[in-house]
């Protein structure tokens, strides 16, 4: 009989001292803590006993594990998102965005949603072959596949592994529509695939731009492309005829909310044709990770930021209710939403929604397939 998943243990309201990691060990990383996953049977806390028993701990290095997946397309029925299927070729993300709402998924692997999430990565090397098999199934019906909605498919290890590029080659061969979300300039590498797909109405790309301040970006998203590089990427994609939009995501009260209008103006000037936003989400362990990051980088704003967040989540740190989790509720959330809508309307964003085509979908004939009689 299959074993039941262990009951998740409660985690503390604030991180323990033993969860915090020395600045030298985490240099170039986003999270400042590495708490145990909520499904682990044991808790281990690094504690100096005064005798130097811990020794010199090594810095966090990126480690890659390979996963033998059985399928690659993930389905969902969430009513508040615009797609029902997605592909995630990687687990974990080296970009190290401190606010990433996908961090808690690392607990399913027995790893920490903290520094483990951005340094102990898993790749699905057979993703393209699995995709080709699933798209070739007689019962398959095409609809837009979303990529980059959980972890970024263009994170740094993609430069060498090229799993995302192989996926795009399959989608292009099948004339299958795809929507991509990224904060990496590496997407420019695949313009040679994306531009022909765009001519057929099969692709759109969204660049996440959280801030225009390189110092703030360096602290929040240490291994993602700089704000200037992301705007350049928007320009390059637009010039190649690829529909591109900007995501102001996430909006963090008292940290980057004052930049909403500036980000939209800069993206429009670069060639973006649409925009969206997401209010900061703090599910499960993300709450502690963000609070510890604020304590490290913005100690004077910690209480204020958390107070504003709770005012948008019904007095809680997070509300997972559909329809509320992305935008929040209450007067403060309403104000952010109206600011965004007014700025987007002023510069001509979102006048019409671009729909990708599914009528061009075709299953390529294999070279060794039996010849038709007619």
Account of the 3D structure:
This protein has 374 residues and is of the alpha/beta class. The chain has 11 helices and 10 strands. The strands form 2 sheets. A 7-stranded mixed sheet has the order 2-3-6-7-8-9-10. The termini are far apart. The N terminus is likely disordered.
Topology readout:
Blueprint: E1 63-66, E2 73-75, E3 85-87, E4 90-91, H1 115-119, E5 120-123, H2 127-135, E6 145-147, H3 158-161, H4 163-174, E7 178-182, H5 191-199, E8 203-208, H6 214-220, H7 227-239, E9 244-251, H8 260-270, E10 274-279, H9 286-297, H10 302-311, H11 331-346
Parallel strand pairs: 1-5, 3-6, 6-7, 7-8, 8-9, 9-10
Antiparallel strand pairs: 2-3, 4-5
Helix pairs in contact: 2-4, 7-8, 8-11
CATH fold topology: pyruvate-formate lyase- activating enzyme
Assign the CATH class: Alpha Beta
**Beta-strand content estimate:** 5-15%
Summarize the biggest pleated sheet: 7 strands, mixed
Query: What distance separates the N and C termini?
Result: 51 Å
How is the largest sheet built, in terms of strand order? Answer: 2-3-6-7-8-9-10
Using the 3D structure, state the CATH architecture: Alpha-Beta Horseshoe
- Count of separate structural domains: 1
Structural class: alpha/beta
Which regions are unreliable across 5 or more consecutive residues at pLDDT < 50? 1-14
**How many helices does DSSP assign?**
11
Report helical residue fraction: 25-40%
């Amino acid at each position: 009989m299959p074993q039941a998943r262990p009951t998740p243990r409660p985690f503390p309201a604030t991180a323990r001292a033993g969860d915090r990691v020395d600045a030298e060990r985490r240099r170039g990383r986003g999270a400042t803590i590495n708490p145990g996953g909520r499904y682990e049977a044991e808790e281990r806390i690094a504690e100096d006993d005064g005798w130097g028993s811990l020794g010199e701990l090594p810095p966090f290095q990126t480690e890659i594990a390979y996963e033998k997946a059985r399928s690659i397309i993930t389905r969902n029925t969430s009513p508040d998102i615009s797609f029902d299927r997605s592909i995630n070729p990687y687990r974990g993300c080296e970009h190290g965005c401190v606010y990433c709402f996908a961090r808690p998924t690392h607990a399913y692997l027995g790893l920490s949603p903290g520094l483990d999430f951005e340094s102990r990565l898993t790749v699905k090397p057979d993703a393209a072959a699995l995709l080709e098999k699933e798209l070739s199934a007689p019962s398959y019906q095409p609809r837009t596949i979303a990529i980059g909605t959980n972890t970024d498919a263009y994170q740094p290890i993609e430069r060498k592994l090229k799993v995302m590029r192989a996926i795009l080659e399959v989608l292009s061969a099948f004339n299958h529509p795809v929507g991509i979300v990224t904060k990496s300039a590496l997407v420019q590498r695949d313009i040679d695939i994306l531009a022909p797909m765009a001519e057929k109405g099969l692709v759109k790309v969204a660049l996440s731009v959280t801030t225009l301040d390189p110092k703030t970006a360096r602290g929040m998203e240490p291994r993602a492309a700089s704000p200037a590089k992301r705007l350049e990427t928007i320009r390059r994609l637009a010039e190649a005829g690829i529909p591109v939009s900007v995501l102001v995501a996430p909006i963090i009260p008292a940290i980057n909310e004052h930049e909403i209008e500036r980000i939209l103006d800069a993206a429009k000037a670069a060639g973006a044709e649409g925009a969206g936003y997401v209010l900061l989400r703090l599910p499960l362990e993300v709450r502690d990770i963000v609070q510890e990051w604020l304590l490290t980088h913005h100690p004077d704003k910690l209480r204020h930021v958390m107070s504003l967040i709770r005012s948008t989540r019904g007095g809680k740190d997070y509300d997972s209710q559909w329809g509320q989790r992305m935008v929040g509720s209450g007067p403060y959330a309403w104000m952010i939403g109206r600011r965004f809508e007014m700025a987007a309307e002023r510069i001509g964003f979102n006048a019409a929604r671009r729909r990708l085509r599914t009528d061009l979908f075709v299953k390529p004939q294999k070279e060794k397939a039996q010849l038709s009689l007619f």
